[in-house]
Amino acid sequence: MSLKLDPRTKLYMIFVVSAVVMMSATTPFLWAVRIIMIPIFLLIMEKHYAAAFRFLIFYGTALLLTFKFLSENSEGFLSAFLVGYCGIIVQFMPAMITAWYVVRTTKIGEFVCAMQKMHIPDGITISLAVVMRFFPTIKEEYTAIRDAMKMRGIMLGGGNAAGMIEYRLIPLLFSCVNIGDELSAAAVTRGLGGKVKRTSVQELKMKAADYLLMLLFTAVLVVFVVSKYIR
Amino acid sequence: MMQTIAQINNVTHRYKGAAENSLDGVSLTIKKGETLLLCGASGSGKTSVIRLLNGLIPHYYHGDMTGDVTVNGLDIVETQLYELAGVVGTVFQNPRSQFFSVDTDGEIVFGPENIGLAPKEINARKEIITKQMNLDSLLGRSLFELSGGEKQRIACASEAALLPEIILLDEPSSNLDMEAIKMLHEIICDWKRQGKTIIISEHRLWYLNDIADRVVYMDNGRIAHEWNAKDFTMLSDDETRQLGLHPTSINERYLALLSDKDDTGKCYIDIADGILLKDFYFSYHHKPYILRKNKFSAADGDSLSLCIPKLMLPKGKVTAVIGSNGTGKSTFLRCICGLEKDCTGVIVSKGKEYRKRQRIGFSYMVMQDVNHQLFTDSVEKELLLSMKVKDVKRCHEILDTLGLLEFKDTHPMALSGGQKQRVAIASAIAAGAKLLLFDEPTSGLDFAHMEKVGELLRQLADSGSTVLVSTHDPEFIEQCCDYTLRIKKGRLFSFEERNS
Amino acid sequence: MNEKKLQAKDFITIGIFTALLFVVEFACGMLGFIHPYIVASYVVMIPIVGSIPMMLFYTKIEKFGMLSIMSVLLAIIMFVTGMGYLGAPLIIAAGVIADLIAKSGGYKSFRETVISYGVFCLWICANYFPVVVSADSYRKNLIDVGYSVEYCDNLFRAINSKTIAVLLVLCFVFGCVGALIGKAIVKKHFEKAGIV
């Protein structure tokens, strides 16, 4: 049984992770703090041990590379390339894994309820719920389109860059517009958009784990800020 | 005397931008508690009638409409859609696009939440429905990992949670296999027992034999025939064929074709001139790995979702691939045409081996949703895209044989479903593929279109292509297939010539 | 009177196109790590590629608020995916202004749509905000962290508080150019297919 968290805790987690990622770390100690921050443990909680391990290796390599080989003097295309990839891994992966975790573990119902509790207007909540519902759909559709492209041998757009974009985007848009039409028809026949206030069966309560995590993340943030700016 | 629950009164309707009327003076009275079956060809107005009753016409799909519709005492034109939510429920055709949530629980309670019921009440309803419909095993799962049949059950549950008096089903079985259709049949029977009014628009008629009280046949936006249940089931196959309908019953012979037999039949046919498939092993659950993936082999045994060591496909014939959903038919086809690159299978034809990427050139799959396969802005360009050497003359020849020449400048997406399918087939021919794979080309087709697809496949096979087609329609197999290949849990179960 | 207010269908449309636009942005964004100059070229790439879904979206807009809500969603998603929250005000401002411009053209006028999309594209500059707001310390940080001086110089030659003005202008210009291209593609495909 994996841990169930309140969506608000998760949002706070994202906030802290992205704040910490944005304030670049400078000393090994801070890096250590960041690594703790990095949601490896989220992966583990979701039982993606292999992914967690792989990420650890990537992260370690990226760090090693940045510290050891990419000094102020490194020049040339290759190093710019390396810096680029290390940059992706170091700067964005932690936040993206957190985001992945949040999207994966949060049910739309929960999320919508949390948004309601935070007094965000219904329109925004509904749209955002659709966005979350639609990412997996886009992925499914895109996979199918890519398969079709492979079969036609037009992965490279038949030789031009515009084609590469056009062949991917146009069928995707056609399907998404269709699915969207059917989706809204199905949703409105089930009463979406009525005048009554939507209710929610989700009971959102901050539990001990939520408070504990919030505390933990706040502590990490404080440690980070203090040792970076004050010490 | 039964009470009238819904009434359509002389309605004529035309969709915005359409050239022809979708409904033409339709009048229909529906009694409380009755089960009505709407049949007819695609585009005959079945779906429009459903949309009239749930208010999507005129509130969602705009257009010109005359006449009036009353449902449960409410004038549809004056009633907002959300006010109908507890009155009329609709199960749509496409399980993929009709859910709003990502998880099953959220989907079941979606409707009741919208109409603002108290959480306690919603949970109570959810529990009752879960019990009634045996959904325990589906709760708490992501909708994206469910099969089409399971999605359709959740869609039914989501409607039922609103406790509607009237339930509409719009071609609900289109994407379902035999097992799932039986399940759907159970659900509809349950609703009937509860006294709900049910209106079903459908192409497949056999599973509704014992459910429908009355059958309405639509043609060109009009109601052309009406039968009571008994007369309708008496219609012979010839009569239904003339009306362009699927048979009203599938006899024993048909059923035997699709039911899950346990005895293994012959699995290997030795043909001198065939296409040999070797070493097709594949699993979606790849072995845990750190940096490098492992290849699959026969040694992986039970963990394989596809395990076909050797198979000889007869050249120039149509072979039906059958088996229930999720049993590996699609995986099999995807592996053959090289879309699953972790699959190591080899295709041998005329002594030449095709591996990995080469399989793609040799074979071509027409996908279930052809929309994904159309890329350009005209049919002609679509074909030229497939050709290595752009040959406009040959392109026109191919289009001509498929009856598409008049559409050569039309946007493929502006065509009807059947025409799109033919464009996809045309590009397969243009690409020079010898082995043509079809993933459920007949799902959701009416009888006339299904027959057309059958003829086309025969034509392809007769001109030398080898055709492999996965399907759930026994009538279709009867019509055009030479061999049947049964797959069960990714294993070859039987491979037989159909003795015609 | 209900015609004026946004309805469930509109919210769903907004959601779908926001998801699509974000996917486009994300795909282009990934290229940025190859070389710092590409980061600067977002202002060309994203407006042009993004114009295809956006021009289709514009054909579906009939009421005020759809673009504004989209920008709010983009701001939220940028935050949730860890791309920072400093740019949020810019994103939302760009969305609301674009919405107002499009409204003045009745959501149908060709000229207003083009300008509106140009303004909307300014949201892309939010990606550069961390760089501009704290340019000096950010540069020092990058070097401390191990980025090469060359990378940083390249980065800051391309993006600093002076060039941000240029980038904003570029965003607008390529937004307008993109809108023209996007319009053409919508015409080529979606109008021809009879979807719009």
Automatic annotation (TrEMBL), chain A:
Record's subcellular location: Membrane
Cellular component, GO annotation: plasma membrane
Residues spanning the membrane: 12-44, 51-71, 77-103, 211-230
Primary location class: membrane
Topological category with respect to the lipid bilayer: Multi-pass membrane protein
CDD domains to which the protein is assigned, alphabetical: EcfT (cd16914)
Keywords: Cell membrane, Membrane, Transmembrane, Transmembrane helix
Domain of life: Bacteria
InterPro entries, A to Z: ABC/ECF_trnsptr_transmembrane, ECF_transporter_component
Pfam families on file: CbiQ (PF02361)
Protein name: Cobalt transporter
TrEMBL record, chain B:
Record-linked Gene3D superfamilies: P-loop containing nucleotide triphosphate hydrolases
Localization per record: Cell membrane
InterPro entries referenced in this protein's UniProt entry, alphabetically: AAA+_ATPase, ABC_transporter-like_ATP-bd, ABC_transporter-like_CS, ABC_transpr_CbiO/EcfA_su, ECF_ABC_transporter_ATP-bd, P-loop_NTPase
Keyword set, alphabetical order: ATP-binding, Cell membrane, Membrane, Nucleotide-binding, Repeat, Translocase, Transport
Membrane topology: Peripheral membrane protein
Gene Ontology CC annotation, any one: ATP-binding cassette (ABC) transporter complex
Pfam families: ABC_tran
GO molecular function, one term: ATP hydrolysis activity
Domain ABC transporter: 6-245, 291-500
Family note: Belongs to the ABC transporter superfamily.
Function: Probably part of an ABC transporter complex. Responsible for energy coupling to the transport system.
Name listed for the protein in its UniProt record: ABC transporter domain-containing protein
Originating organism: Ruminococcus flavefaciens 007c
From TrEMBL, chain C:
Residue stretches spanning the membrane: 12-33, 39-57, 114-133, 164-186
Keywords linked to the UniProt accession: Membrane, Transmembrane, Transmembrane helix
Keyword Transmembrane helix: yes
NCBIfam families: Trep_Strep
UniProt-recorded name of the protein: Uncharacterized protein
Organism from which the protein derives: Ruminococcus flavefaciens 007c
